[in-house]
Amino acid sequence: MNAGYGMRTITRYHRPTTLDEALDLMARDGVNSVVVAGGTVVNSSPQPPDTEVIDLQAICSRAIERDNGRLAIGAMTRLQGLVESPAVPSLLRELAYREGPNTLRNAATIGGTVATGDPDSELLAGLLVYEAQVRIEHPGGPSTLPVVDLLADPRVLAGGIIGSISVATGGATASARTGRTPADVSIVAAIGRAASDGVLLALTGVAATPILATRETIASLDPSGDFRGSAEYRIDLAGTLADRVFGQLGGVQ
Amino acid sequence: MKIDLRVNGIDRSFETAPHESLRAVLRREGFFSVRFGAETGETGADAVLLDGRLVSSEIMLAAQADGHSIETVEGLNPARGLHPIQEAFVASGAIQSGYSTPAMILAAKELLDRNPDPTEFEVRDALSGVLDRETGYLRPVHAILRAAAMLRGEAVAPIEPALIEPLVEPDQSPDFGAVDRWLDLPPLAPKVIPSPDVPETQVVGKPERKVDAIKLAKGHPAFVDDIELRGMLYAKMLYSPHAHARIVSIDDSRARALPGVHAVLHHENVARVRYASGGQSYPNPLPYDQVSFDNKVRHVGDRVAVVAAESIEIAEEAVSLIEVEYEVLPAVFDENEAIAGDAPIIHDEPDMEGAHDAARNIVQHIEAEVGDIEAGLAEADHVFERTFRVHQVQQAPIEPHIAISWLDSDERLVIRTSTQVPFHVRRMVAPLLGLPVRQVRIIKPRIGGGFGVKQEMLIEDIVGHLTLATGRPVRLELNRQEEFVSSRTRHPQTITFTTGVKSDGTLVAQKMRTVANTGPYGTHALTVQMVSGLRGLSSYNSPNKKFDCDVAYTNVPVAGAYRGYGAPQALFALESHMEDIATALGLDVLDFRRRNWTKVGDPLDMAAELGEGAAEMKFIPVVTSSGMDECVAQGQRAVGWHRRYDPDWVSPSDRPHIRRGLGFAMCMHGSAISGLDMGGASLKINDDGSFNLLIGATDLGTGADTILAQIAAEVLGVPTEEIIVYAADTDMTPFDVGAYASSTTYVSGMAVKKAADDVHRQIVTRAALMLDVDSPGEIVLRDRAAFATDGRSVTLAEVALHSLHQDDQHQIMSTASYVAPDSPPPYAAQFAEVEVDVETGQVTVYSLVMAVDCGVPINPMTSAGQVEGGMVQALGYGHCEEMAFDENGRMVNARFGPYKLYRSDEMPRIEAYMVQTMEKSGPFGAKAIAEIPKDGVAPAIRNAIFNATTVAIDNIPFTPERVWRALQDR
């Protein structure tokens, strides 16, 4: 209630020009630093005192490139860049559009979306069903891991910087969602894709991050409710919306 | 640190601190078009183009923009005249308050630079980041499409009202089954159904451009925050973290010791003067239950202390250094629990004045009866009873509360503030500050929306105290979270209607029992709830009526005035109840209402009991004009009413989980508080035959200044541009109660007309002298001149020069005021079209149609804008907006995304029709229009859901889980 603006506690700003410089800045002991991509989350939420900002705009890529049957998306690609790129699967373009209004999409990035792990992010759910792999740059060299692992344990990102996200291509897709209004953040959304070994289903609004689920695991979900939807309602929605997605994808599972 | 920006094509270097937002730096450098809306950047009032893309400058560090190119609307502005996008916004009626107009214009520029021929959806997407609380987006969207055509070099037609044939023939029952639904009309054309009773006029009734449009379109400094004062201090409030607590001690020593802090005020060092904060006429209604700072807090967000310091950063740090020890008390949030007798007592202080029963948390008890309710119910063939609950929402103007105060060279206190009620504020703030009224001056510049939340003396005492304590100018601006919980909201209510009906559908008795929730202060406790009773029991005739109301103190944020003022609550309950009765009796929902609604000649008997000026009301008013039948007919056609009886439409075969429905609600409002609301106007001629119109009326973006200028122009035979409007300033302009109670057109408009009539008399007298004509009454004013019957004329400039300089010198001028004996009701028919997902409960609103009888719309363009924007606010009320709290009374969604305002890219189709009637008591036939659009949307959606699913839901908003649960219980 009495907190000031989020950014008031920012005391230094860095714009490293090389990856090594950025990783060195992050590795300093006793310095409270935060990485900023678009800044839409960091600059609108409270930060601890004496926060130093490390702005990645000069080092991370915005390129979207085909790569061995997959698509590599530079972490600094803005959400609007996804929306406007014909190379990006149409479902992901639509989900990027649904992340927010144009003022947000023109600043927020795919890397920032992955790093913040918003439980209501349909784009993250889309990345789950597109079997996204996240390349993380560490002082000791890059590593790549599935986005599902990063969401399950964000500590793997500590000291590192997301360089790019690669996604599968192809496969029929379907989505269903429920919200208060057409453009509202969905209370629950179900995103499906027919992958080579069956339908992948991801859900928002039912756990601490978007998750992969199956018909069987929905019953055991334990969401925390809020004013937009109780736990009981969210579980019911998950079942209904998953059924619609499976139905649209021809019942394959 | 130094940053380099290319701003509007010019390379600039700026000093900035690492934490500073791009918005803060741009405003400091004089780009005042970039405005604060929310600390989360969600309103888009702060939007700029960064490398050609629209972004929020509030949530971007200035340092992030280093090396980039920035565009603001100042970069578009030609030295004189307007950019084509600005021109299209002005011509289209797309500007109301104008607070976010620069951002919208930048959004348009971004789009049109990339895409010269966009679709409507692409335009809506381009505007999606700029929240609009005023227009409903319709006019801005079509203004951008118009601008696109202009920039492509295409000719665009002037925007004229579309005159629509009436559908209702006298004594005929219309049939709309075969009529085309949407009329093929230009989307920007205000839709008017003319009445043959309305005389022809030259300026009134025309879609004139807003008199303040140019400064708003160009983003000129015009709002409270757009001035710079040397030595200004920044204020920051410390608010209560507890819903109910006693302040045991306050230690401000660390805050005072912080360098740059100039004052820390709280209950130990500010005089304890009782007041009621609602901006209402003298004497303010009881209770007087507030003081500037108290030793007790009564809701999360209640005042504890305030700091004034050299910068907002220092003020915030100082606030965090104030140590407060609280004794936390039990709290109560529900209005029914609060008055049950065993709840914590919220006002136990001995010096509180005027609550009905403070020990039971009952602020006000209101009873009013016409006829004999029990006898009426006894004679009824059927008695229906149903209880409804309406929730708490916030007005959410995009410009939050802001005030800047200083001492002028005479050491008088000047407060420049975003208020709807400058004269009330002056009278009310003076005693709190220990000053005589003459020592206080209130200035209201342009206001970025109010909707009732600024019908308060809310923060003016705080800046006043701080300026008196420090001798320095002081600025206090609420951030968005503070605006949600520490300003004012709409009263939640529990409403029970009991209605007795004869078998033929005639009402014989109607009782309304309301328990209202005012939060911990009764600022509008009496008056809002009186309007609830008045509106709830005036729409329909019934010989026996009773209103019985308790207003409860609770520990939720304070309720106050919000556009509609008690009517939206009452009409949700009433129009839901009437739908249910018609359905239960097997009657047509329109026929049943039509049989009972008030018609011309019917008495408005509750007005004599519940009018706020009732003491002056010696008679029972009657309805003098009503276009209700025509409103219903126009709305029925537009919404395609016949479809609700088509099972294939209600249950589309290709989407088995969808049901569609259409709903209706009748609406009836008032035009000012009769016998109480007073407006004043002063009008004087200048050397060139132009006029200064000085008014105390308060234009919040409604277009009030424009329609008042049109009224003067009509009388004086000049174009609107010859009227220079200044408002409102307590030193300069006549008194006016301010902007509330749908009073400006009807009351202030009559004051302007009276002043103009008197100036007209003086002009024709002078012209008769100049033209050597014996009868001034034969002289006609038109085309900026005075004409004798033989065709000879003198221009108004010649009249002015003659009277000011040449012969028998005299300043042609007049001051007039007006208080209305009547409050003629505008009527309206509200229709809604919805889809319900019966598996998930999701409700999607597809169209909203309102046909409204506002008498003669003085300006059809601004009137249409009032209806379109009002419907969208009302849509939020019924469909999605809600203040949600945790168990400790803390609001959990005090930001715009979770609170949920509708965006431009998710809007239903909205259509406004204006059915003319000639209201002889109003200026040129006008009645009010600003509030009635708030009244019918929630019940129309509710009744549409009922039509679609047969499920009747008695609580708003119709969020998915609420509807899902109702469907489960079916």
Provide keyphrases for this structure.
heterodimer, A: 253 residues, alpha+beta, Enolase-like, domain 1, five-stranded antiparallel sheet, four-stranded antiparallel sheet, 9 helices, globular, B: 970 residues, Ubiquitin-like (UB roll), Aldehyde Oxidoreductase, domain 4, seven-stranded mixed sheet, 26 helices
Give a quick rundown of the structure.
The complex is a heterodimer of chains A (253) and B (970). Chain A is α+β, with helices and mostly antiparallel strands and 253 residues long. Chain A is built from 9 helices and 12 strands.
Q: Indicate the mean pLDDT of chain A.
A: 94
* Alpha-carbon distance between the two ends of chain B: 64 Å
User: What's the story with the biggest beta sheet of chain B?
Assistant: 7 strands, mixed
Helix content of chain B: 25-40%
CATH class placement of one domain in chain B: Alpha Beta
Low-confidence sequence ranges of chain A: none
* Greatest interface (CB-CB under 8 A), with counts per chain: A-B, 48 and 69 residues
| CATH architectural category of one domain in chain B | Alpha-Beta Complex
Q: Please identify the structural class of chain B as seen in this structure.
A: alpha+beta
CATH topology of one domain in chain B: Aldehyde Oxidoreductase, domain 3
Q: Could you state the oligomeric state of the chains shown?
A: heterodimer
**Structural class by helix and strand composition of chain A:** alpha+beta
Instruction: Give the strand content of chain B.
Output: 15-25%
Q: How many E-type strands of chain B?
A: 33
Kindly provide the name of the CATH class of the largest domain in chain A.
Answer: Alpha Beta
Number of helices of chain A: 9
CATH architecture of the largest domain in chain A: 2-Layer Sandwich
Number of helical stretches of at least 4 residues of chain B: 26
- Sum up the overall morphology of chain B in one term: globular
